[in-house]
Amino acid sequence: MATDNILLLPVDILIVIFRKLEMTEIRCIMSTCKTFRNIVKGDHKIWRTFSRDTLVLMDAPETRLAALSWYNRYRISRNWLHGCFKTKSLLHHYTNYMPWLTYHNSEILYLSVGSELVCYKTDNKGLPSCSKSLWRLDVPKVVRQDVRTNDISRFVIKNNVVVCGNRDGCVAAYRITDTRKKPKLECHIKDCHDEGHVEVTAVEVVDVRDQLSIITGSSDSPDLLLCTLRSGRSSASGSYNAVNVPLQDCSGTKSMALNAMSDKLAIGPNGNSKPVLFDVTTGKYLMTSPTTVNHRQAVRDIRWHNDNTILHVTHSGFMELMDIRTNQEVYRSRDPFQSSLYCVKSDGMNALVAGSAEYSRCVLFDARKAGNYVQMYFTQRNTSPVYCLDFDSTKLISAVDRGLALLNFNVDSGSQEHKDYSGHVFH
Fold first, then answer.
1. Strands, E assignment, 115-210
2. Domain boundaries, the chain
């Protein structure tokens, strides 16, 4: 019997109809009734189709956020694009620091504040809870004849090993056996560069086959240090092999990052605006940049965007992607205020977020659209640089000199104030 009631149509037919609609029509359909709203929200193909024309933030497969529906992923990404978020202050202190952080698998937050490394868990909503720490530790200190402290400059976490590079010229490595328990000191290297007279500004670690290899660099040293230690051997024995590797086309190391296979080391040089690529297994340089040597330039932070592409930000405010197969630049954008960029992070797809040198400001870029930024976020009421950041599809965490802030984008866009600083607003 013929009917004009569309609700009586089979769900498969309704989905076919809905997939042919535009976004404005989809919004009208979703506001019609709960049945239509649930059908539209549950069909991934509709939202994947709309996601092709916009920037959608993705998550690593090993995180729990990877299971987000395409509807929620699209909705939350639209909040990123339009500056719709809720800000929360996670930590505040009255001493200026240069912190570093890692939001490990979107589950555990590691933060360095001065000479202390602190571990925080997430709450039942998946947000970092900094009211109480799981554990905290002070890195070993070596007394120097200058005014340097033993503050942690940077740290890295790989395979349950934490390696901290310190401003007193030392490196401390810890083994994590249980996330909720304080890790054990594995190795303490006292004089990494120039007999400990310069600070360690970059560290990396390789932990394979019962062998721990630590790579360190300093912005004031023309060498890399490669230290190899047998896992489980006492740190007091001092039995490790150390090899110095001369750097090329730069005066020091500002940052470094190993790829997923731990065989290629991307180096952010001091005294050059382009990265250097070093083969860890052969000890040879795969990519150098002799034509861009400039003592006023530096690559402040460097990451692996994917297996073949290096992401880095420079002192002059540029963000670039370099293809290591061709040694060519495939993407280039600049901070909208032409400020220095201190740190950078990628979701491995198209979303790139950088921390600037002023006003606690983070900037979102789209790797498919060079030359322009997507959105800006003033994360705290502070003129400090963003020294470090981390993000997933639902939140952004920024660390400045006196605090730590969380921007939660998993909010209702209809009830939350929009803070839109995108390019079209300024134009």
1. 116-121, 135-138, 152-158, 161-166, 171-175, 184-189, 202-208
2. 1-42
CB atoms within 10 A of CB 422: 17
Judged by DSSP in three states, 184 sits in strand
Maximum C-alpha span of the chain: 94
Report residue 303 as tokens. 């990451």
Backbone angles phi, psi at 385, to 5 degrees: -65, 160
Residue 154, burial from CB neighbour count under 10 angstroms (0-12, 13-18, 19+): buried
Instruction: Render 83-134 in DSSP notation, one character per residue.
Output: TB-EEEEEEE-SS----EEEEETTTEEEEEETTEEEEEEB-TTS-B--SS-S
Q: Name the token pair of 136.
A: 């905290």
Number of Cβ atoms within 10 Å of the Cβ of 232: 9
Distance CA 82, CA 133 (A): 33
CA separation for the pair 114, 139 (Å, rounded) = 10
* Listed residue (301, 292, 305, 285) closest to 250, CA to CA: 292
Please state, in angstroms and as integers, the Cα–Cα distance from residue 283 to each residue in 228, 243, 258, 278, 286, following that order.
14, 11, 14, 7, 9
Whether the CB-CB separation of 189 and 214 falls below 8 Å is answered with yes
Amino acid at 213: S
Q: Lowest mean pLDDT: which of 189-198, 226-235, 270-279, 369-378?
A: 226-235
Tokens of residue 274, six digits: 């382009």
Mean pLDDT of 410-427: 81
Domain 1-42 sits in CATH at: 1.20.1280
CB 400 within 8 A of CB 385: yes
Classify 67 as helix, strand or coil: helix
**Residue 91, both tokens:** 């930590």
282: its two tokens: 């052969």
For CA atoms 8, 9, 10, 12, the dihedral sign is: negative
Distance between CA atoms of residues 355 and 364, nearest Å: 9
Distance CA 226, CA 205 (A): 10
pLDDT for 136-161, tens place per residue?
999 998 888 776 778 999 999 998 89
Percent of the chain with pLDDT over 90: 68
Q: What are residue 38's phi and psi, to 5 degrees?
A: -70, -35
**pLDDT one-digit tens code per residue, 333-342:** 999 999 999 9
Tens digits of per-residue pLDDT, 106-139?
899 999 999 999 999 998 888 899 999 999 999 9
